[in-house]
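Thread: quick sanity check before group meeting

JM: Hey all, I'm pulling together slides for Thursday and realized we never actually wrote out the predicted structure for the chain we discussed last week. Dropping the sequence here so it's in one place. If anyone has concerns about the input, flag it before I start.
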Amino acid sequence: MTFDLDLEKALERLGIKQFLPIQEKVVPILREKKDCIVQAKTGSGKTLSYVLPILESLTVNQKQAQCLVLVPTRELAKQVKEVFDQVGCFKKIKTLCLTGKSPISYQEQDLKQRVHVIVGTPGRVLEHFQRGNIDGSMLSFCVLDEADELLNQDFLKSIQSIFMYLRKDICHCFLSATYPCDLLIDFMKDPIFVQMEEEKIKIEEHFIQTKNKNLDLLRILSTYKPESCIVFCQRQDTTKELYEFLRDLDVNCDYIAGNLEQEQRFLCMDQFKQGKTRILIATDVASRGIDVERVELIINYDFPESCEKYVHRIGRSARVHEKGKAFTFVDDLDQMKFVQLEDYLHVDIDLEQLDGNIDLTGLNERVRYNEDKNKKLKKDVLKLYINAGKSKKVRAGDIAGAISQIEGLNFDDVGIIQVQDHQSYVEILNGKGNLVLNNLKTIKKKKVKVEKASA
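JM (edit): ok, ran it. Output follows.
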């Protein structure tokens, strides 16, 4: 497969040299704007399979959004937005994240500007449709990422309401690792079903008969000394209790749960992805779609509530071209769910028991340093802050025009522009950021202050 030069340039910088089987199958379908249902294991490359053809089809100069991606969690929304930003960075594509717990007024301001792709959670996206902030008639693609979760009772009513705002001929793409429910068919027109063949098992699965979960957890950590590990709990309070238990033993760990402030959740996940955090204790908020490189160990401290949740939890390990291990604790109260999982997996599972001494030496140290893909992408890009916005009647076109007047610059050097009430942000491409930083003094004959944007 080949793509336009801007996409090819981004793929090269991201180190993507060949496409995965799921991408080879899904990209041609979406290029023809045919509906599809995609079932493939976690870590198989589903996100890029729809991001590439959608980016390829976008009309850059159109103001209204052309693609809507719905996801079940704010963490996954942020991650999908990052993929669109990374792959579409040289096409000057703007992706907007619409999730709860963020000021809706700021989102409304962004929606009044040019937006190409919207990624969001159903509740907040529906609210924007109801307020008239999104024009469903201009959307060409609708993606449900983790479709089976989005069509359960928690989200179904919102999804059905959102679909009432969409045009009848919109292209649907629904994806999940577990089989999406038959209700999907009701939303689609002659969908193509893509089911990827299961690869040889890359996850070594163990089921531990336990009487003392904390003791068995320490035994596993002592034996494997994982560089990166996720411990899944069922309840929010359990995650915090387990975090405090391991922290007091000087283990490098953190926890994430739905009751934390959003910024804290994002920071926690980012630090784990970067390798700063070694052991992440999480509820199922981290089980869906979250992509972290080199997670070598999954521990189900609490038995999953459903077979599908088991699949998604252990799928955080053994991503593309990787291997991993998964340990699931089984206590006396888990027997019914354990039998259901055996039936679901079509295997007889042998229960194991752990023993051995506890030695947590070294688990307080950081040993994993994941590469920051954005550094390669942004090496020639500088994001600038300008102390002028809508309150001074500054528009995106005014900023682009002022920059283009600087000697040695033109419109091709101006990336995404975001105008807010009292300030604006602009990305300068092709290594010309310092030229703008040093020479942009006025916009619409008004003096402005220009600085490097903070992270």
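AS: nice. The two ends are 35 Å apart (CA to CA). Residues 203-352 form a domain with the Rossmann fold fold (CATH 3.40.50.300).
JM: adding both to the slides.
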